[in-house]
Task: structure prediction
Amino acid sequence: MVRVTNPFNGQPVADVSQAGEFEAEHAVVSTAGAAPVMGALPSHQRYRMLQEIAAGLARRRDEFAATITAEAGKPVVDAKREVNRAIQTFIIAAEEAKRIPGEVIPLDWTPNTDSHLGMLRRFPIGPILGITPFNFPLNLVAHKVAPALAAGNPILIKPAPQTPLTALLLGEVALEAGVPSGGLNVVPCDNAQAERFVTDPRFKLLSFTGSAAVGWMLKAKCGKKKVTLELGGNAGVIVEPDADLELAAQRCAAGGFGYAGQTCISVQRIFAHQAIADLFTTKLLMHVARLRAGDPTDETTTIGPLIDATAAQRVEGWIGEAVAQGATVLLGGKRTGSVVEATVLTNVKPEMKVSCQEVFGPVVTVTRYRQLDEAVAALNQSAYGLQAGVFTQDVNKIFHAFRHLEVGAVLANEIPTFRADHMPYGGVKDSGLGREGIRAAIEDMTEPRVLVLNLKDPTGA
Result:
């Protein structure tokens, strides 16, 4: 039994049973046993099932939002937004369930193949293991469950230990929506049991979202199964002299401090051209100063608590370490319990933890540069490469950044914290392997199979 605790006030939210070896084995058998049933579902039935899950989420929207706020400490406005996104994720998956593509392949390119024709279809890969993080306890679970069901695969979800309640609620909704027995299992368990899942050959794919260290460690244990990893980042933004500085400052404030910076595409490193650095920084500080920190149940709160006191102490320590190494605090820098103030730093060196590692807290750095190539090189000077933003009115600069930034996505006149739930999403380097986004995930969750036809003229034709 593990206690789920409210990150803001430390009060107990619920006690959740952990699966032991017996329960875990039963869940794996159930998931594997559902593969033939799930694979046989026609697309119209998968469509209807996913639409019913979306409708169930909509009916229980307030319950889901309150649960997310209680166990994750996410400000309630952001929690409601997450529920709305999850609804859309299932609706998108329902549509994609009807249009998993195939291909007709002409094979008569060489002599002696005149009568041959190929057809390609995608088939369900089989049982999937999904391991999910605490920061989006509904929508990041949805990004594994929805494409798995759309493709006709059963899936077992191991939720984050801090936030299992939201995933368990989603399991209830899925059952009510008619997901076949074993089609979705939600299994809270300890890390040792999770590793046993990872090495179990009955799972054909591991879809993991979490830290880089854990993700690459699990990949090494996976054996022959397919692996997709959505890992961390220290997202960078470049602000050119011709940018709309008000837009850039407003969006960077939102992207750096929403949910206390606890997203892998949170704005962390801002590179501002020296010609506009002072003006941009002033505008940024004005926007950040308006953000309210505190009780996540208050609809005016933007910056709630970090997931626990240990995380808050770590972020406070990194800020202090940066200051000791020469960084300057322009705003914030203090901690009260599990809440860290919105913090803006300058005079930051690339080797400081607040720059080269993932802060996962409400900390943004501002660094000056002289030429665009200098900013691109500085942004690329990272072990991570998830998403990046560039603010400029020059389309040539946008395409230069698109060609040269080592990331999974470049956002023009937008922050790297932006994500549409149907777009391919993922990174390079230590930021991961493969792509999420419903259609991209379906490709990983299916196997292409080719049928070759040797066609002859019918007798008597």
Notes: The longest helix spans residues 76-97. The mean pLDDT is 97.
